[in-house]
Design brief:
Elements (H helix, E strand, L loop, with lengths): L1 H11 L3 H19 L15 H19 L4 H5 L3 H5 L5 H20 L3 H10 L7 H26 L5 H23 L7 H7 L3 H9 L5 H23 L2
Helix pairs in contact: 1-6, 2-3, 2-6, 3-8, 3-9, 6-8, 6-12, 8-9, 8-11, 8-12, 9-10, 11-12
């Protein structure tokens, strides 16, 4: 399994795509946080990274499917999947290997964003920021990335066309992140029904963890989606 992790990781960073992904993530967030007037944190009035944690899920919603879209679809397209299945690895090990590789890549993309924490702290009038809230928000963001990565891998396993895998992954991630929240706000769904519908969305649980409170229900929610996505992917490739 770890041979697959190493292969996927090295393959991603063997060309400029990996480095461009990191630069794009930082550049897009940097433009929104420090340049554009409407989202500029200098105009926010507080030494806080709330704007970053509001924006990052939307940037990652496109970036992670772009990272994961070729993981299995290219194996089908170029006929290397049959070679992969001849290795002494189970379907679960193949899927987990690819999933761990995607997750490690995404975490590496997130790592340079700690620069924003240092920047905000240095610009703070007191030199103090709410570390608890920032840590909680990063934990929530990591869970969100883990779900996006699992969904992206699952969608890549459903087709041999990487573009279709990307579009399908973006759609599913968008539905999970924003769709249920939007549906719950419909006028005829106000009240308890709307609240329970909203609980099916990532946004609800992401915001809970971002407040610095790690609730078991939120953790179970994220792990459930990851497990279902990995399970579906494993079943799909075992039937090929």
């Amino acid at each position: 399994m770890w041979s697959i992790v190493k292969k996927e990781f090295n393959q991603f960073f063997s060309n400029l795509i990996g480095y461009i992904s990191i630069i794009l993530f930082l550049l897009i967030n940097g433009v929104f946080l420090f340049v554009l007037e409407d989202s500029n944190i200098f105009n926010y009035g507080y030494a806080s990274l709330d704007k970053f944690f509001e924006l990052a899920p939307w940037v990652l919603l496109f970036l992670i499917p772009a990272i994961s879209m070729r993981c299995l679809s290219d194996e089908y397209k170029f006929g290397t999947f049959e070679t992969l299945k001849t290795k002494p690895l189970s379907s679960n090990q193949i899927v987990l290997g690819k999933y761990i590789a995607i997750l490690l890549i995404v975490l590496l993309v997130l790592l340079p964003s700690l620069i924003y924490v240092v920047t905000i702290k240095s610009l703070s009038a007191t030199g103090v920021i709410d570390n608890g809230a920032i840590i909680g928000s990063y934990i929530g963001l990591i869970f969100l990335c883990a779900v996006y990565a699992a969904v992206g891998l699952c969608c890549s396993g459903l087709t041999s066309n990487a573009v279709v895998a990307f579009l399908l992954s973006v759609f599913v991630c968008l539905l999970l992140y924003f769709g249920f929240s939007a549906i719950s706000k419909l006028s005829f769904l106000q009240g308890n029904i709307g609240f329970y519908i909203e609980m099916f969305g990532i946004d609800f649980h992401y915001k809970n963890i971002s407040r610095g409170v790690i609730d078991t229900r939120d953790v179970v929610y994220f792990f459930s989606i990851i497990f279902m996505s990995v399970f579906i992917t494993s079943k799909k490739i075992s039937n090929n």
